[in-house]
Amino acid sequence: MSDEVELRTNGLASKGATALSALASVGAFTSAAACCVLPLVLGAAGIGAAGLAPLVPYHWPLTIVAGISVAAAWLLYLRGRPAGTRLGASGRGRTMVVVLGMATAFTLVSLSWSLLEAPLTRLVQRSL
Question: Distance (Å, rounded) from C-alpha 94 to C-alpha 74?
C-alpha cells in the first residue's frame, strides 16, 4: 500500500516539476530573445513587442531557474518510473518526456543565446 502511495506522490511531484520546468524554460528563452531577435520577428509579423523589454535583465536568473527546474523534473520523472521500463512507455509518460525534452531544448538555447543572437539577428534582418 505504501509503495502505491509513494508512486502516486512521485507522479504528482514529477508532473508539477515538469510544468514548472516548461514555464521557466519558456520564460528564460523569451527573456533571451526579447532583446533583438524576437522584436524583429514580431514586428515583421505586425505584432508589437515593446512589452518584452522589461524581461531582458532577467535572462540569467530565469535561465538558472529553468536549468535547476528542468534537472529536478528529469530526476523526479526518472525516479518515479518503474525499473526496467523505457522512457515514455505509457501515454502520460510520453507526454512528460516530450514536454521535458522541449523544456530542455529551450533552456539550452537560452544558455547558448550569446552565441546565437548575432547570427539570428543577421538572418532575420536579411529576410526582411
Answer: 13
The rounded distance, in Å, linking the Cα atoms of 113 and 63 is: 10
Residue with cell 530542455: 104
How many helices (H) and strands (E) would you count in the chain?
Answer: 5, 0
pLDDT digit string, tens, across residues 52-100: 778 888 889 999 999 999 999 888 888 876 666 676 666 667 888 888 9
CA angle in degrees (0–180, nearest 5) for 77-81-86 = 105
Angle between helices 2-33 and 37-44 (to 10 degrees): 80
How far is the C-alpha of 127 from the C-alpha of 111, rounded, in Å?
25
